Amino acid sequence: MKKTLNINIGNSIIHIEEDAYETLTTYLNEVKAHFSSSADDFEIVTDIENRIAEMFTEILSRDQRQVVELADVQVIIAQMGSVKDFEQIDEDATGEIPVQDGIKKLYRDTDHAIIAGVCAGLAHYIHIDERWIRVIMLISIFLGGSGILAYIVMWIIVPRAVSRSEKMYMRGEALNLQGFFRNFEEELAANQLMKRSGGFIREVVSALDRFIGVLGKTIVKVVAIIIIIMGSCFLLSLFITLAVLLGIWDANPYEFFPLNIVSAAYLTQIIFAFFITLAIPLIALVLFSIRVAFNSKALNKTVSYGLLIVWLAGVMASIFYVAKVTTEFKEQAEFTQVRPLAPYPVYDVRVDRTMFLNHEDSLRYHITAERYAGKVIISDDHGPFTTPSRVGLQIEKSDNGKVSLTQNYSAHGKTFAMALKNAQNIEYGFSQQDSVLNFSPKLHLNKFSNWRDQRVVLVLRVPVGTKLNIKKDVSYSLDRYGSWSCDSYDDDSNDFRVWEMTDEGLKCKE
Amino acid sequence: MIAENTQTQMRKGILEYCVLLIISKGEIYASDIIAELRQAKLLVVEGTLYPLLTRLKNNGLLSYNWVESTSGPPRKYYLLTPEGKEILNKLDMTWMELSYAIETSKQMKS
């Protein structure tokens, strides 16, 4: 089965096979180009076309056929004569038609190759002698070997000029009969040359050439498959995260850090917006990789535009909500509470890791007085989802000889009133048992309060001469200002250092 | 190369003369001209004939009539104009002279 075309030549409709058509078109273009210099070109070409049409009709009626074949066209061209024949007779012909520069394309010229024809192909492309490219390549090998890498990359990427038309594109020759003819002769010459110049290396190189071609494709496919697998895993985990966040499972994610920034009113929306923003590019990447790996069809245009629109909407929503959340940090408010402490000459400063639980927490964790009588729950979470808890302790000299603890609570909010309310929602655990001062390492937020950068700054004021036994974990948990640089503690967590308040401030005793 | 060039020049002139001779016998179609040229062993391809005919026509030596054809488009049948006949007579004379010149040259040589 062959494809046929209908052409109108000399006012006759002729059915013609595709290859025959191509040859005929090339021939007629040649003829037109040849006569274009003479004043009567139109008339001459029309005469020739009419005659060709007549010959087609004769051949078809003689052989009782419907379609013109390539052989018929060849017969007709032989009878009409090629342009070369015209030139011998035609007195107007002053010389050869100049080689028309057609479109140039980069191919590997394996006919003139040393290894894979990259240099020769490049030489054709930028129209200089291939020797110079090879010299440059050789030099570049000694300059860090970049030439080798470039060569291999081009070997994989740049296609080999296989067909005659590809070879002509490679040389930037116009696709016409003359070109074809010249090309054919050169090809023959090159083939003879190739036969002379040792077959073995050529064979090895051509095998290597095929191997690299296959290798390149394989690498691309393997990478695509890896992307498919990774992308699918990410997608799956995204969906699981979405399910968890939307509370399909009985988990309470709202106490985890990034989520408790967002107020509950639009938490669902923001989760969806982020989900869409992340998931759609992933889906697109996976689909594209599937296409590369399995040569499947491209995604339907409507679907891809739909995905794009949904993604843009997701991005817009994300930006909108992030901006909205940001405004909730606009104002800052703080208040201070001074608490007098019972005076002792020596204080033990400790960190109290007892978890602070309010009524709702107790219910949630099923903590009852009976079960937990005399026990404490130790809070020691340092995960990535821990709410930043900013508690800082400073120790200063007391001016009035009394011992006091100043607690400074601060928070952010959309308005000053909101910020103040957020600051009031801070619960901070501090207790004094005789000379032992227990500081909680964390601040606690009351139920339903979002994280609004709540901070607690504690200032302990002691009179000059007061001694403080500060344990190691205190400085780890509460020294936000790096002021207690006495010396390094031992690894024992019960290790402590003795400090004394002097006129110049706190001094390390040992 | 020189021989080739001379051959071409000779062929060109004679081809033109022969074409005029063939047409002078009566209205004739281009492919029939070719057929007669082939018979006369003056081998040319058809494509060469059309420019020649067009040029002769433009110089006023030929004219043509359109004749409907059963196979394909209407055909151009060429015939000599009075001017063409005149030129042909001149060419006849020239040919006789040339022929005489060649014959004589050859005889002198031998």
Automatic annotation (TrEMBL), chain A:
Record organism: Pedobacter duraquae
What residue stretches are annotated with the PspC-related ToastRack domain? 383-509
Domain Phage shock protein PspC N-terminal span(s) in chain numbering: 104-160
Topology in membrane = Single-pass membrane protein
Q: Which residues form a coiled coil?
A: none
Mind telling me which PANTHER family this protein's record contains?
Answer: PHAGE SHOCK PROTEIN C (PTHR33885)
Return the InterPro entries for the record.
Phageshock_PspC_N, PspC, PspC-rel_TM, PspC-rel_ToastRack
Please list the residue ranges annotated as the PspC-related transmembrane region domain.
191-329
Q: Which Pfam families match?
A: LiaI-LiaF-TM_PspC, PspC, Toast-rack_PspC-Cterm
Transmembrane portions of the chain:
132-158, 222-249, 269-290, 302-323
UniProt keyword annotation of NAD present: no
Alphabetized UniProt keyword annotations:
Cell membrane, Membrane, Transmembrane, Transmembrane helix
Q: What is this protein identified as?
A: Phage shock protein C (PspC) family protein
One Gene Ontology cellular component annotation held by this UniProt entry: plasma membrane
Q: Where in the cell is it found?
A: Cell membrane
Q: Does the keyword NAD apply?
A: no
UniProtKB/TrEMBL annotation, chain B:
| Annotated Transcription regulator PadR N-terminal domain residues | 19-89
Record InterPro entries:
Metal_resp_DNA-bind_regulator, Tscrpt_reg_PadR_N, WH-like_DNA-bd_sf, WH_DNA-bd_sf
Record Pfam families: PadR
Q: By its UniProt entry, which PANTHER family does this protein fall under? A: PADR-FAMILY TRANSCRIPTIONAL REGULATOR, TRANSCRIPTIONAL REGULATOR RV3488
Q: Know the name of this protein? A: PadR family transcriptional regulator PadR
What species is this protein from? Pedobacter duraquae
Specify the taxonomic lineage. Bacteria, Pseudomonadati, Bacteroidota, Sphingobacteriia, Sphingobacteriales
